[in-house]
Amino acid sequence: MAGQVAGKVALVTGGASGIGQAIAELLAQEGASVVVTDIDELKGPEVVAGIRKAGGEQAIFLQQDVTSEPRWAEVVAEIEQRFGRLDVLVANAGIGIGVLSIVEMSLADWRRQTAINLDGVFLSVKYCLPLMRKGGRGGSIIMMSSLAGLRGSATLAGYSATKGGVRLFAKSIAMECASFGDGIRVNSVHPGIIDTPIWAKIPPGASSGQNAPIDPQELARLATPLGRAGQAQEIAQGVLYLASDASSYVTGTELVIDGGMFAGTAVRRS
Q1: Which of the residues are catalytic?
Q2: pTM of the predicted protein model
Q3: Can you give the residue ranges of every domain in the chain?
């Protein structure tokens, strides 16, 4: 069905590549005006150009470091000036830092990862929620967590800490919005092994002790009941559902999109 988010204004952080790019493109395809933000000033405009070429005329790119509080105030002010409201917030920007042992993680890396993955989500809500409430039309806040936010990972302890925090932050803001009666729903999305550029940014050896880069397809073949890595577009479809009125009775919960990993272990018979 076309136009599932027609007439809505959506902000997607970390929208220059991977899952964020797929989300921005699908929301625009389904009728939303999309604001793409990212620290990447080269790829971000390319994503918006592609959206416009495909017919999504109401798409803009704003450079943003999600850890900068002053920049958040500027981004939200720009959205209000251009569109007058905000209906959908997708807090997607994040990084993953893996280490063989937590004792090898520097405090600087711990703090950098926490600043982007957790502080950035906090700031997104702090600055976007007032504009969403001002519109008086309700809305949807979607926070990108991870399968690592639902269960432990031996080599991603710091990452899991941030994504677990996002999960409970989403539930708490969902309860706040419900208590205010503002019609804003809040949920978290938990991808499993998804074939995106983030794997190239995790240091080789973080998961296996070897120096070869992590191959998400091979990792998923061994670890995922469905036997393959997910695609960014498959996460985007879940986000579209949460952004649309089809999920009007869904708040404070997790959408797990992981090929069955969280459910258990399956031995394929063929």
Answers
A1: 159
A2: 0.93
A3: 9-257
